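Re: your question from the hallway

Yes, I did run it. Sequences:
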Amino acid sequence: MLSGITMGQYLPGRSPVHRMDPRAKLLAAALVVPAILLAGFWPAITAVTLWLAVVSGLSGLRPGVYWRSMKPLWVLLLLSFTMQAFFTPGEPLVHLGWINISEPGLVQGALLLWRLGILLVVASVITFTTTPLQLTNGLEWLLSPLIRLRVPVRELAMIMNLALRFVPTLFDEARLLLMAQQSRGADFTHGSIRERVRGLVPFMVPLLTNIFRRADDLALAMELRCYQVGAPRSRLTELRFVAGDYAAIAATAMLLVFVWGTRLMW
Amino acid sequence: MPCIKIENLTHTYFPGTPLETAALQDISLTVDQGETLALAGATGSGKSTLVRHLNGLLAPTAGRVRILDGDVADKKFRRQLWRRVGLVFQFPERQIFSATVHEDIAFGPRNTGLAGQALSERVSQAAAAVGLPEDMLRTDPAELSGGMLRRAAIAGVLAMHPDILILDEPGAGLEPRARESILQRIKELQVSQGTTVILITHQLDDAALYADRLALLKKGRLLAVGPTAEILSRCDLLDEAGLEPPFTVELTRRLAAAGINLPKTPLNPAEAARLLAVML
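Structure:
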């Protein structure tokens, strides 16, 4: 249940992509997404694919890791491909009873498959190489203009940080509790629904108690460090753009311009 | 007579992923019926992973674990192992869920099929064994002190009458007197009932006082196992395991450095005092 890599898991490393400023990664992602959606001709598709090959190569993670992270989603990918292939009108290429597969259908399907795949890999690159903390810091910075509109960006980022910080801890706690009660003969998998719900009591009650106690402790600890809602805060590590970050953003921006250009020219 | 036989046990978490970690590597160990074995090692040495193989929570990645008369690889046997091997987790008071102490202690034995008068007797016995006053059984666990809660949680496992009792840091976070009292009572239980006890600790003082044999773990490997006095007298081993020697062992070492050689390494302060008195 808790094994294997999932999308969104951070994989520690020291590659150039790992060391990039999280804000630069998010900006680059924001630039590449329209490029992926606009690309519809060979030069643009090649350029985007090359860009991604370079980025994922620089991330220092083996291609197998990306492949495995996409595995749970292949049903979705396959479904969107078949839908496109079957339901795009055009000169039929193959007849399967009432189903017609046309050449434009196949092309459209393949293009959709490519777009979704690339988008997934881009998302994976970011989550594999960026800690959740960095990611929320980056998001906070990107959303900071909204502070003027009275959106509590800093507080939202703090809530997100705390949630991300405590998810693994709570998982651990839940796992331990499950094992401890199993050691006393608790059975969560047999019996009628009524019995099973009753069986959850020895698990849920201490879990909730412990969560509330932890939240209490955390609130106290934050108060003791003078945390105040709405007060400006400084950071332990200031985010700073370096030459590499500018280069990455510039390269991605150029990619977008190129893709756009091919679109206008054809 | 051995009641636990571990042969070349290896356990790997998350096999086949970048998060793969070998928690235990090639561990071979036997535990005799009725003895107290202390399992010591620094944080992350694999102590907790090792004992989870002993009551059916984990199955070995490689190697064999035989307990009492069965093999842990057998899923059916593993499922029923909790009835015979009691495991007290670290900070067990965090697992208490009932409205009264009595109800919580009764949870385990009730799951074994006990009910009515027999169940009540079991609960009272277990409470008495850990030094929990009878009138506290009717109270809300939230009203008890940390030490009493710990006793209640341990009683919850004792009440199942396990053949083998495993305790993961039973004294952690308690004041010294409560800690001593709990360990003393478990020792008495081992002597009077013949229960096999496995005590996980990183405080060797506890091992020195209560364990017949001591096993040292380091990074998932078994560093040494033998009679407590023998292992404790080897400071090089303790250093390698990253553990602090108990008070009396450190005392002996310092005395020896000052030119005073005790005839043997004492295992408790009283014995040390006696040895010193003889020499004076």
